[in-house]
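Input for the complex:
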Amino acid sequence: MIRLDAFIIALVVASALGVVAAQHQARKLFSELEREQARARGLEVEWGQLQLEQSTWAAHGRVERMAHEVLGLRPPASGQVIVVEPRR
Amino acid sequence: MKKKPVAVTLNHNPLLKRELPVWRSRVVLVGLLGCSVALVARAAWLQGFNNEFLQAKGESRYARSLEVPATRGRITDRNGDVLAMSTPVRSVWAIPSDARLSPADARALAGLLGMDVADLNDRLGSARDFVYLRRQLAPEVAEKVAALKLPGIHLQQEYRRYYPAGETTAHILGFTGVEDRGQEGIELAYDRVLTGASGSRRVIKDRRGQIVEDVESIRPPRDGEDLALSIDSKIQYLAYSALREAMHKHKAKAGAVLVLDAQTGEVLALANAPTYNPNNRANLTGAQLRNRVITDSFEPGSTLKPFVAALAIERGKVTAATQIDTGEGRMNIGRNTIHDTSRHGLINVAEIVQKSSNVGTVKIAMDFPPQELWTFYDALGFGAQLGLDFPGEAAGRLRPASTWRPIEQATMSYGHGLSVTLIQLARAYLAFARDGDLLPVSLVRKDGLPRAGKRVLSVQTAREMRAILEMAAGPGGTAPKAQIPGYRVAGKTGTAHKLENGRYTNKYVSSFVGFAPVSAPRLVVAVMIDEPVSGQHYGGAVAAPVFARITASALRALGVAPDAPLQPLQLARPATADAAARDREAM
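Predicted:
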């Protein structure tokens, strides 16, 4: 009888320690998850800012100015355009 | 061990021998019992029946309710280019009574916030409990402010809306307030779609402030939906820059341009001048905010003439070749006289539209009872809102036919005495561009096949009108400057006197509405220039070149195949260019 009691007490103690360990583990993992989620939000914000930056750099006004002033491009005169049509 | 004699034992205590009254022990017993019952009752009360207070107190030691912010949806153009987007910024606020800054700290903070030290000290000297020092600071700067670790200075996260295209798209997008809620334009019209709902959740935090457990998610956050407009940002830019140039050249008071996709009824570009930069909240007031395409109506002038001609052809009253005598360009109706700008004599219906003869148009219009004209104008969408859900959309003015006097019926045929918005006018031209049916216009991208429109003209009439309008935009018409190399264009000019305080003045609204390419119309472009003062004021001279510039580059941008030979444009020898175009169609 005493042996059975001791055995059960040992089981209870072991399970209690297990609960503590599991809880600790869960909290550790959870805080890791939190960190990663915060990182994901941060990256999303950064993505948005990069999109904005891209739109600013690629603004049509700027592209036109660059094409004219830096690259010296201009629209073709009407005589310079050849239209290729598929044979019917 | 020897037993000691015990003088007093427990049992032989002389004190016990005294008879005590029984009630004394009873009192003690009852008193003790009563106390413990009271304790048990109190414990039961606190733990069982009235436990909210203590539970809340306990929970507040470790549990926190956190706001989970939601972001406002993006607005993109039809190709997914970002036109408006919210990004987090920080606002710096202070509790003045806590903020005791050393002069060096104050200088450092003022430097980061871009404020005067005196101004900063002024705000920190305020008697209030809460002052904003600077709203909507870039995150990098905010981090430097946080790194100073100044007492009483706090940061708060907010969202700020950015418009990368700035003034180009200002009128269609509108803008949001400091709280990131829409105040104008699409931002206001679609505020409910774009705005998200922030959520909240309960968490357990440990001693170091880290979240260790999610207790429950009270409300999950719902981010605002993204919105794809029908705008094509390239065409929008082309339209805006052409308009800006024309405004500058003619020193006009205002101007507006609308580009519609003739196949779907979507708005590809909507530009206004004067405009404003929505990224700078400092000057968001005044006339520059007006969206003249949708919220302002004007008397359209001659751009309305083709509709009278179309109705007459549709009803079989005339054909394009019917001769009408416009005489000396004068016509009396009651006590009023209607003038033409020059004498045309005997001309046919096509030429009346081509040369924009008021007298000829009136003669055609007077053949109809007022109700029939009204019904047609109403079917074209004049005098009623188009249902765009755009804030402040104007309906224009079209009076009921029963109130029309003959002179009013006459002036309405050439676009005076009624008012329309530019978007109504452009949409009505869809009927010519689309073989007679009218589509609803849309500011947001429509996916899938366009719905069938409402038929207002027969296919035959619409095609005839296209030929007539091509003449009007051609060498013998009022707007040869609408011509563009490589494409056949059609359209009609308008030059309307402005009505001020009930009288017509010598100020003008010049307009042009047209479409291209004529063989298979793809774009309807409407241009309106308000009060051009420098030199010319005729629609053909002011608005038509803007139409030509926008249409030429927009068709190229859309990759529409040219339907006219690509020769150097020869306005001096019109007959050959025209003939070449016709030959080509016959092939």
